[in-house]
Predict the 3D structure of the following.
Amino acid sequence: MPLLEVAGARKQYGKLTALDGVNLSVEAGQFHGLIGPNGSGKTTLLKCIAGAESADAGSIAFLGNDITRMTPTGRSRSGIRLKFQITSIFPGLTVYDNLLLAVQAGSSMLDLIRSASRRGLHAQVLDSLERFRLAARKDHPAGILSHGEQQWLEIAMALALEPKLLLLDEPTAGMSPEERRVTGELLAPVRGTCAVLIVEHDLDFIKGICEVLTVLDQGQVLDHGTVAHIEGSQRVQEVYLTRV
Amino acid sequence: MNPADSPRAAVSAAWSRLPVILLVEIALLVAFAVLPAFLEYFWVVFATRVLILGLLALSIDLIWGYAGILCFGQALFFGAAAYTVAVIARDLGIDSIFVVLPAAILVGFALALLVGWFVLLGRLPPTPIFVALGTLTGTYVAERLALGWYFLGGQNGIPSIRPMTVAGHELQEGVEYYYLAFGILVLVYLGCRWLMRSQFGLVLAGIRQLEPRITFLGYRPQTFKMIAFVLSGGIAGLAGGLIAFHDGFVWPNLMGVVLSTQVVLYVLLGGMGTLIGGIIGAAAIELASFHLAERLPGYWPIALGLLMLLLILFRPTGILGLVVPLRERSGTFGWRGAAPRDKEADGDAAA
């Protein structure tokens, strides 16, 4: 059974059809790339999976359970985490507090009111900051981090509660080549334990870390398969790869 | 360039600065604790009102400054609680502090639950305008109801409320009541301070900064807002119970639009998101109103309005914004263990 199964997802914005019967299946622990030209529906699909948007038709199943009508909070609690295309950290809080906020989401309301879990989570927050190269910046407000560091912080926050599926919307947008390389390195350790669905325009980056690619075009799946298969696909060459 | 002038060193130095709010809090605590020794009776009564209105302002800052809920109806909880204890004292002859103040808190809780259910949970997600107008409508309706209901005394309100008692002893306005209000304000303040610096407070800070994002971390922002709102209603109710027995009468203005707006201005003037700011704002506005009313009879509301307008335009962070760095307003939530952070910060500052 796949970890995530999207069947016949449709999404309409007025007269514009963003998703037109998309089927997608992601296996547990798999790094899955989602590519396609601008406006092909990649971000909409990611938002529908995370619950930021609701699909007009079709179904989404996660771990065998239908989550089509579940709230974003419910989906997050069941193990799906989203990193937005536009960096969405809490700029006025320190880097440490940003990560604590993500880590303590698993604590009960009573524990949060009594601050009972703070001490226990301290080591986990520091470990995560260390891993994502943010330890030296932990007491700075997140808003003054560089763009790349903010992206890493957001990925660290998304991975904080060991999700089963991480949705990354253009994680390397605006990054230098060196920052992109580091981002790939930072993601590598979760391979096998957490599936990652990545929307990305940087084909070199995505080919370097994903095992499977799905190509979208005008709201439909154009092709699906291994990196080698997609690179050799005539249809993809015609519609997408030659255009970028 | 001198390393101490680098942006990084400047940031570190700012971060390791003494907490200014704490100094302000201690100074005010000491000042209010010894104030009655230096004041005449009239000013002790005046200061008691400031303390009670400061408690009301604290309840607004809790939800506005920390949870991002702009409530224009806080006087509803305040006034309804004042009326409730006045009716209890008038019709049931009950004036024990151990009954009337818990009753006032309960009225605040219950009404905040009702209003919060409508404005915070009734529409998902509620816009700030919807919440502001929803609460404003609540306070307007309550004021009209009190004005027109004979049982509540209509526009005259309920006069001659007997004094509150502690084990049979009557608490008269003056020094006794001052210290009662002061003690309650300190206790509630410490409770709010503790809660806002807890992990719960961190979630509220996250909601205030970027509410849509917090949902994707697995939180239900509405639940957190509702808890803060109901707590704030209880505090406003407590303040209402205190004002009823202090003034000895209640009238419709206590739950009206004017007072609701005035309390928001207390917080705005003092500095929102600081807790202590509302109390400073209450003292400043009440003092300014009193002196302006003496010097500019007939014109003082205009003068006060102009002062407020200038302040909002040029000092939106309030009086405390003059001395408190932005960092302190958002608070520090993380437990720093053996404080390696302090060593680093000190090292940077020394460099």
The first helix of chain A runs from residue 42 to 50. Chain A touches chain B through 46 residues (CB under 8 Å). The first strand of chain A starts at residue 4 and ends at 13. The mean pLDDT of chain A is 89.
